[in-house]
Design goal:
The structure holds two protein chains of two kinds. By secondary structure, chain A is of the alpha+beta class. Chain A has two domains: 118 residues, Phosphorylase Kinase, domain 1 (2-Layer Sandwich); 203 residues, Aminoglycoside phosphotransferase (APH), C-terminal lobe (Aminoglycoside 3'-phosphotransferase, Chain: A, domain 2, Alpha-Beta Complex), CATH 3.90.1200. Helix content of chain A is 43%, strand content 17%. In chain A, the strands form three sheets. A five-stranded antiparallel sheet of chain A has the order 1-2-3-5-4, with helices on both faces. A two-stranded antiparallel ribbon of chain A has the order 6-9. A two-stranded antiparallel ribbon of chain A has the order 7-8. Chain A starts with a helix and ends with a helix. The N terminus of chain A is likely disordered. By secondary structure, chain B is an all-alpha fold. Chain B has one domain. In chain B, 82% of the residues lie in helices and 0% in strands. Chain B is built from five helices and no strands. The chains are: A alpha+beta, B mainly alpha.
């Protein structure tokens, strides 16, 4: 089946979602969906938001849902399967970390054409940090003073979470030493190798540097892998949910810290992730976790993120160019690649 | 009107006329993305001839310099000869790999000169991609 043929009309999907949700609500009648919207967030799966209304025991009831569907052709498809996301969310649900409650996971392709999960639509907003409205939102939230603390507190909560008790050992803890860094390096190099992109000499240089400079790490925490504004839902100036559980691993907490410190996660401001003052982040994170921020390791992981970005863009563009996806956001990434290669070259001294 | 100008105009129309009228968040984002892509393509087309000429001249200068920097019979000299028939990026990749794995005395000089060319290539890409 071609990529074009897999794109069913939104109306058809809406009807199928309604049929599925109605089947999941025993004793419910007159089930209706409202505010159904496919949103342009995330790269790996289609995301649909909607509110369900129904009658049960004579009372009107309603609940917001978020459905993520695997169209089988998107970025990181082979690295991020919905079944694992669902399992991670199940493990995190009883913990203090704010995450959406997972409801159902379905592998049966007869239902919506491909596997999907349904989870809670958590209240809150998720402004994109890459646009002017989002930047203004975070600037105003910074001035109010609550969200910066919540941002750091939530990361500290993630990194102090007892992942073994939560049942997350299935993610696979790395051996101590350079194992975590080199495993991540291998993961992203393999993604690059899967693309049909022409060789990029700057990337070859960067990968050699990463192989030669891998930091050691003896501490293992649950790492989100993309902890930044834009992947966090905000309600009343507090993080109401950590989203995008696609890249999580067990490993070095500095991997997340480096992402927060990176200028890849902010635009037009010195504030980390557009929301938190650098010195306050260091102070509050170290106080809340007891983990000292290792600047050398963070520098290494920032270089790794540059490589990861390059891998993302090359993979994304390959998906569009090969006709496996029709999402124009993927095509646009062809022009994002020189920007990350420029960062790498500057870091490497040219 | 030149091709790059036609594409730039089309991008402007999509950005100002089409995208704002598109219903649905996902679809509207796609429309704006189409405008962004066409803008990038237009800029790339505008610079293409100038960039190709510069690349040809600078690669020619690179081969001359690398021949001077490497010793006859050395592994790096052989890598230089083997890379000459490749396209610019593939040639630079092969040169870089050879230099990074070399322990010959000219290694650092070859690396430095190759990276200078890589920087120039990158600057050209940035001229239309940013």
């Amino acid at each position: 089946m071609t990529a074009l043929a897999t794109v069913a009309s939104d109306r058809s999907i809406e009807d199928k979602i309604l049929e599925y949700i109605a089947g999941q609500l025993p004793g419910a009648s007159n089930v209706q969906l409202e505010a159904v919207e496919r949103i342009a967030v995330g790269w790996s799966h289609e995301t649909w938001l909607f509110d369900a209304h129904w009658i049960q025991d004579g009372y009107e009831r309603s609940r917001g849902f978020c459905l993520r569907r695997d169209p089988g052709n998107t970025l990181l498809r082979h690295m991020s399967d919905l079944k694992q996301q669902f399992r991670v969310l199940q493990c995190l649900d009883p913990t203090p970390l704010p995450t959406p409650t997972p409801y159902w996971y379905e592998e049966d392709e007869d239902l919506l054409g491909s596997p999907f999960l349904v989870m809670e639509k958590v209240k809150g907003v998720c402004p994109s940090p890459w646009g002017k409205p989002g930047r203004e939102y975070y600037a105003q939230a910074f001035d109010r003073g609550i969200l910066p603390h919540s941002f750091t507190e939530t990361l500290a909560c993630l990194h102090t979470l007892d992942w073994e008790s939560a049942g997350l050992s299935f993610l696979g803890a790395p051996a101590t030493g350079t194992s975590f860094a080199l495993t991540e390096l291998t993961k992203w190099r393999e993604l690059i190798e899967l693309t049909r992109h022409d060789p990029e000499p700057v990337l070859i240089d960067l990968i050699q540097w990463l192989e030669d400079n891998a930091p050691t790490s003896d501490r293992v925490v649950l790492v989100h892998g993309a902890y930044r504004t834009g992947n966090l839902l905000v309600q009343n100036d507090r993080i109401s949910a950590v989203l995008d559980w696609e890249l999580q691993v067990l490993g070095d907490p500095m991997f997340d810290v480096a992402y927060v410190l990176s200028d890849l996660t902010r635009e037009g401001t010195d504030r980390l992730s557009n929301i938190v003052d650098r010195s306050a982040f260091y102070r509050e994170y170290e106080a809340a976790t007891g983990i000292e921020i290792d600047d050398r390791a963070c520098r290494y992981y920032q270089m790794l993120y540059i490589m990861r970005s390059a891998a993302f863009w090359m993979s994304a563009n390959d998906l569009y160019a090969s006709g496996r996806s029709n999402d124009l956001r993927l095509s646009r990434t062809a022009w994002s690649l020189p920007g990350v290669l420029d960062r790498a070259a500057r870091e490497l001294g040219y | 009107m030149k091709l790059d100008e036609v594409i730039a105009r089309a991008a402007m129309t999509i950005r100002s006329e089409v995208a704002p009228a598109v219903m649905g968040s996902y679809q509207r984002t796609q429309a704006y993305m189409a405008a962004v892509i066409l803008e990038k393509v237009a800029r790339q087309l505008l610079l293409q001839t100038e960039h190709q000429r510069a690349e040809t001249d600078e690669m020619a200068a690179l081969w001359v310099d690398l021949e001077l920097l490497t010793t006859p019979g050395s592994r790096l000299r052989r890598a230089v000869y083997a890379s000459r028939s490749l396209g610019a990026n593939a040639a630079l990749s092969e040169l870089l790999k050879a230099a990074l794995s070399s322990d010959e005395p000219e290694r650092d000089a070859v690396l430095q000169r190759t990276r200078r060319m890589m920087r120039a290539q990158l600057d050209r890409q940035l001229a239309y991609s940013e």
